[in-house]
TrEMBL record:
UniProt keywords, alphabetically: Isomerase
Record bears the keyword Oxidoreductase: no
GO molecular function list: carbohydrate derivative binding; isomerase activity
GO biological process terms on file: carbohydrate derivative metabolic process
Superkingdom classification of source: Bacteria
UniProt KW DNA-binding keyword: no
Protein name: D-sedoheptulose 7-phosphate isomerase
InterPro entries per the UniProt record, alphabetical: GmhA/DiaA (IPR035461), SIS_dom (IPR001347), SIS_dom_sf (IPR046348), SIS_GmhA/DiaA_subfam (IPR050099)
SUPFAM superfamilies: SIS domain
Residues annotated as domain SIS: 39-198
Species of the source: Pasteurella testudinis DSM 23072
Length: 198
């Protein structure tokens, strides 16, 4: 592969990412503000944020929980956030003993309380395990915020009227995942601004 071909691939990746962000700026800014207000109201009411990302989105889910529990920009008190995931012995046991669509349910059921918010990261919008979590959240009367991509009909169809979908206007999973990280950063910035910038 020539140097020019490699340079073209780099430039194309930057161009795709920039174009996705421009489209997202126009289509998602209001939705992101609305999501931040839901999260602030949840925290001010003494409830917590539960986060789950399947597959590679687990890394972004971890990053979101880290920003909430530790900090984003400001040195401030920890915010109650909890990651649902499948690391280590717990993950191996749950996967071995459960239907794949139910792998997150046991963790969710034991920590979720009415008034909490569930955030799901689902780039392709069709992960059965995350759809099961939406149904479980609906039954417990938790609001759900999803971070998805353009192909998200399954997720969108499962959401209730009080839920919110932040859908990145892209089809490539790589572009969706990297823009999910940007949305996470913006949400954390808005939450800190609302709660601690006085």
């Amino acid at each position: 592969m020539s140097d020019n071909t490699l340079l073209d691939k780099v430039k194309n990746a930057f161009t795709e990412s920039i174009q996705t962000q421009i489209s997202a700026t126009e289509s998602l800014s209001d939705t992101i503000v609305q999501a931040s207000e839901m999260l602030v109201d949840c925290l001010l009411s003494g409830h917590k944020i539960i986060v789950c990302g399947n597959g590679r989105s687990n890394a972004n889910a971890q990053f979101l929980v880290t920003n909430l529990l530790h900090r984003y920009h400001l040195d401030r008190p920890s915010l109650p956030a909890l990651l649902i995931g499948l690391d280590g012995a717990l993950g191996a046991s749950i996967i071995a003993d459960n239907n794949p669509s139910q792998i997150f349910i046991r963790q969710f059921e034991c920590v979720a309380q009415q008034g909490d918010i569930l955030i799901l990261l689902s780039p392709q919008g069709r992960e059965e395990a995350l759809l099961s979590l939406i149904h479980a959240a609906n039954s417990k009367e938790l609001a759900v915020i999803t971070l998805t991509g353009r192909q998200n009909d399954h997720i969108r169809g499962a959401l209730g009227e009080d839920d919110l979908d932040i859908s990145i206007p892209a089809q490539k999973e790589a572009r969706i995942i990297e823009n999910h990280l940007l949305v996470i950063n913006i949400l954390c910035d808005l939450i800190e601004h609302r709660l601690f910038s006085h």
